[in-house]
Write a structure and sequence with these properties.
The chain is an alpha+beta fold. It has a domain at 79-204: 2-Layer Sandwich (Heat Shock Protein 90). Helix content is 60%, strand content 19%. It is built from six helices and five strands; from the N terminus they run ααααβαββαββ. The protein has a five-stranded mixed beta sheet, covered by helices on one side. A hairpin with a 2-residue loop joins β4 (187-193) and β5 (196-204). α3 crosses α4 (88-102) and α3 (80-86) crosses α5 (120-140). The longest helix has 43 residues, at 4-46. The protein is elongated.
Length: 207
Amino acid sequence: MISDFELQQIQIEIQDRSFQTYANVVHDIVGPALTLCKLHLHEMERLENNQEIKPLIDQSQELLTQAISNLRSIVHSPGGENIQRMGLDAALNLECLAINRQNNCRVHYSSLGEIYSFRDSEILLIFRVVQQYLIAIIETQQTRDIDLLLESNTTLLSIKIGFDGIIIVPMKTIDQAQLRVKLLSGKIALSTNETKHLITIDIPIPQ
């Protein structure tokens, strides 16, 4: 059973992560694009030849389009209420897309089977556990590719996170994830083969 305190803590962590995502996108992507557009406008003021101005206009339009697209994308990034409304499969897919827009590595997401409709509080907990592992791997590994598989049957939801490199996941992340998954009678296992690693999160489907 997930306590109200634990649920509130998870919601706060997801919200904090969303705010961090917003800040990173605005600072690292949108800000530089708008700054370059401003420089182009200043450059166009001094140019008299239309053939010289045209490429700057085209590039400015493209930069503004990308900036607007990035701003729209963070508005629709997973937050507590969005996650509950979308469901686990769609929320994790959207989270991976958001990660891929901001990082050098790529999370390759896939799902198999019909995903069981967990309760809202359980969806938030599972989403946050997966999000924690993804963030920890991205921040501490020298990997470029992460495979995330969500697989479900009538008795078990199995989430597999595969990656390479030297495994350095903070103990705080591991301990917190283990405790949270136990609330759903689940378990987490790590298998490793030299530089290949697989984190498996198994959660039984309520019968």
